[in-house]
Design a protein that fits this description.
nucleotide-binding; four-stranded antiparallel β-sheet; transport; binds adenosine-5'-triphosphate; globular; 10 strands; about 40% helix; about 260 residues; alpha/beta
């Protein structure tokens, strides 16, 4: 199957530091690819380049065959790439349903004036967004929380809400930044299932996650970074036995301990 996301020789430096250097890999439809590596390895920086937050110093990001390098996040979203953030970007005082509806509005191309005048086209869009949002809440298991204020949700539910918001853009590629951070074992398992279901629907998933058990459970393919370089990639079993990967993690542990 063809690649939905292809990362080709991406790199960026901050001052003299090569935070990411010549990293390449690809993600196909329905595949779950994880980026792992010790603290400071360059995972977040790589994510930020892929999702248009940082302009890469070198290399290309190809989305469904088109070069989208350096494209702004909202334009990437319209082309089918959406992402979640490590620090949740939920509107705490809105309801759960309203939060998902705002996800739909990011995707809209319709004239704002139609909304201001309350034209039929705008009302139709609003109805469609509402129906779509309810469907998404069902998909992530938050139907019963639809009218609750988002700020009152448990952490695991907030993480699922954030995924629902990203799905409102109907992405072909979904980037998940630490989807299980701060979650307990039960919540992590629920997020596991959700991610697997989204992948099974054909979405290409790229994730950065510190929970190694989760990564090993759900990834089809793992890319390992250390000091900004890709030091290994492969399936979970292969990567977890790779001496360079073990050395990088042990090295990081010794440095911190
Ligand atoms: N905006 C920035 N300006 C300067 N240096 C940066 C910037 N962002 C990241 N760095 C540096 O680039 C390197 C990679 O950092 P990055 O946050 O991408 O690593 P990470 O693998 O995501 O780490 P963690 O697991 O701790 O989240 C680090 O040395 C970091 O200090």
């Amino acid at each position: 199957m063809s690649d939905l996301l292809s990362i080709e020789g991406l790199g960026i430096s901050f001052g003299g530091l090569k935070a990411v250097n010549d990293v390449s890999f690809r993600v196909r439809p329905g595949e779950i690819v994880s980026v792992i590596g010790p603290n400071g390895a360059g995972k977040t920086t790589l994510f930020n380049m892929i999702s248009g937050v940082y302009l890469p110093g070198a290399g290309r990001v190809m989305l469904d065959g088109a070069d989208v390098t350096g494209m702004e996040p909202h334009l990437l979203a319209r082309r089918g790439m959406s992402r979640t953030f490590q620090n949740l970007q939920i509107f705490q005082s809105m309801t759960v349903l309203e939060n998902v509806i705002t996800g739909y509005h990011l995707q809209e191309k319709g004239p704002v004036v139609a909304d201001i005048l309350g034209l039929p086209s705008s009302r139709r869009r609003a109805r469609k967004a509402m129906a779509g949002a309810r469907e998404l809440l069902e998909r992530v298991g938050l139907t019963r929380a639809a009218e609750r204020e988002a700020g009152n949700l448990s952490y695991g539910s907030l993480k699922r809400l954030e995924i629902a918001r990203a799905l409102a853009l109907d992405p072909k590629v979904l980037l998940l930044d630490e989807p299980a951070a701060g979650c307990n074992a039960v919540e992590t398992e629920e997020i596991d299932h959700l991610i697997a279901e989204v992948a099974a629907s054909g979405v290409a998933i790229l994730l950065v996650e510190h929970d190694m058990k989760m990564v090993m459970r759900i990834s089809n393919h793992i890319v390992v970074l250390d000091h900004g370089e890709k030091i290994a990639e492969g399936d979970p079993a292969t990567v977890s036995q790779n001496p360079a990967v073990i050395a990088a993690y042990l090295g990081a542990e010794n440095a911190h301990g």
